[in-house]
Write a structure and sequence with these properties.
alpha/beta, Conserved hypothetical protein from pyrococcus furiosus pfu- 392566-001, ParB domain, 4-stranded mixed beta sheet, two-stranded parallel sheet, 8 helices, 37% helix
């Protein structure tokens, strides 16, 4: 995601933020909640100030979150009311019926549900509290933290990994044997089938 970042000094209510994706990995959300709640009050305030939420301003003058959905959801669950946002795009001049097309073209929206199926933009949640859990996104997040792939600047890169894993590992395995699913994901992440994915760091063939 590129473009000048213009910090907005005034806080914005978390529940006023509009998501640009449909799901999150709730394991990652719960981990962020735990780490936040273990902080001292002063450290919590510092963390909120340092981790501003990147947004695009729409023609309706609302703030559309284009990254850090997990953080926003975690802060909401931790009873935080307001956050600071960073404006990375201003689309107030765009006609309303063209807005989502522009967002899609700029890769600022990911309208895929928990089954990995593309949905209409109108189906996007209206608040971060309405984001649904995608267990495969949780698996992809854990895979990255375990070194299965590198953090990458490609928009929604972990969702691309989630969709890859969705085709390889059963939902039943994730729900009942998450650690087993994670070990399988690590194996898959090293394979040639995953070479096209952002952050792939599997073994390279000898020259």
């Amino acid at each position: 995601m590129s473009g000048p970042r213009e910090p907005r000094v005034h806080p914005v209510k978390i529940l006023d933020l509009r998501p640009t994706q449909m799901t999150v990995g709730m394991i990652e959300v719960k981990d962020k909640i735990k780490r936040f709640e273990e902080m001292k009050k002063s450290d919590q305030e510092t963390a909120i100030g340092k981790h501003m939420i990147p947004v695009v301003v729409g023609p309706d003058h609302r703030f559309y979150v284009v990254d850090h959905h997990h953080l926003a959801r975690a802060l909401h669950e931790a009873k935080v009311k307001d956050v600071l946002v960073t404006v990375i795009g201003d689309l107030r001049m765009v006609e309303r019926d063209a807005f989502w097309g522009v967002m899609d073209n700029k890769r600022w929206v990911y309208p895929y549900d928990a089954k990995g199926e593309r949905r209409h933009f109108k189906d996007l949640p209206k608040s971060v509290k309405d984001l649904k859990d995608d267990p495969y996104r949780s698996l992809a997040g854990e895979l990255r933290r375990e070194g299965g792939f590198a953090k990458d600047t490609t928009p929604f890169s972990e969702f691309l990994w989630a969709d890859f894993l969705r085709r390889k590992i059963s939902r039943k395995t994730i729900d009942g044997h998450f650690l087993r699913a994670l070990e399988k994901a690590k194996e898959l992440a090293k394979g040639a089938d995953a070479i096209y994915l952002p952050g792939w760091c599997g073994p390279h063939a000898d020259d």
